[in-house]
Write a structure and sequence with these properties.
Shape of chain B: globular
Number of strands of chain A: 11
Helix content of chain A: under 10%
Oligomer: heterodimer
Radius of gyration of chain A: 13 Å
Radius of gyration of chain B: 14 Å
Low-confidence stretches of chain B: none
Mean pLDDT of chain A: 92
Largest sheet of chain B: 6 strands, mixed
Structural class of chain B: mainly beta
Number of strands of chain B: 12
Structural class of chain A: mainly beta
Strand content of chain B: over 45%
Order of helices and strands of chain A: EEEEEEEEEEE
Low-confidence stretches of chain A: none
Chain lengths: 116, 112
């Protein structure tokens, strides 16, 4: 089955700790994205990557870091510098064949992060 | 800057009623793409439709239909004969380069 997997589903972190959220896709998509969702809000883009070993900041990148060493994987690290990390994190992927903005993004099931 | 407005925060209807979810967008681009996603209680966003700015034809897919009007910058979504399984949060989104700008969503509750 092709799709996007995120792990873990629920994650608890103590203040001051870094945590890494996993995102893997087997859709052979070139582009991958990380979004953050807060209650009652839309999704906001944290980082995105169109190609291996390259990524760009989104609207709310402060306190987060990413890597793209493999096409199918795009892990997100929430660092201790992120002031309010409790949120629902969604990973997405898409082709880039259609050109800027035209390719549909498909989403994973999400990771709910809670800072204790 | 791009903006998407979903003014209806929550809607409740009785099963089998029709319901329309509104989406109004702002962009200065002449070429853009609009999307609708469904977020059931499980949390995953499910893609429903993509529409480009040059195609104003309405689209129907089963009980779902979409009305795109550039003149009013709207891309509304109608569910006909609603069912309990339609209960979810629905998001409208606008492409902004490589990212999507999302509205704040409309929570739809179908009452059995």
């Amino acid at each position: 089955d092709g799709g996007i997997t995120q792990s873990p589903k629920y994650l608890f972190r103590k203040e001051g700790q870094n945590v890494t959220l996993s995102c893997e896709q087997n859709l052979n998509h070139d582009a991958m994205y990380w979004y953050r969702q807060d209650p009652g809000q839309g999704l906001r883009l944290i980082y995105y990557s169109q190609i291996v070993n390259d990524f760009q900041k989104g609207d709310i990148a402060e306190g987060y870091s990413v890597s793209r060493e493999k096409k199918e994987s795009f892990p997100l690290t929430v660092t201790s510098a992120q002031k309010n990390p409790t949120a629902f994190y969604l990973c997405a992927s898409s082709t880039i064949a259609g050109g800027q903005g035209s390719d549909t993004q498909y989403f994973g099931p999400g990771t709910r992060l809670t800072v204790l | 800057a791009q903006k998407v407005t979903q003014a209806q925060t929550e809607i409740s209807v009785v099963e089998k009623e029709d319901v329309t979810l509104d989406c109004v967008y702002e962009t200065r681009d002449t070429t853009y793409y609009l999307f609708w996603y469904k977020q059931p209680p499980s949390g995953e966003l499910v893609f429903l439709i993509r529409r480009n700015s040059f195609d104003e034809q309405n689209e129907i897919s089963g009980r779902y239909s979409w009305n795109f009007q550039k003149s009013t910058s709207s891309f509304n979504f109608t569910i006909t004969a609603s069912q309990v399984v339609d209960s979810a949060v629905y998001f409208c989104a606008l492409s902004d380069g490589w990212k999507l700008t999302f509205g704040t969503g409309t929570r739809l509750t179908i009452i059995p």
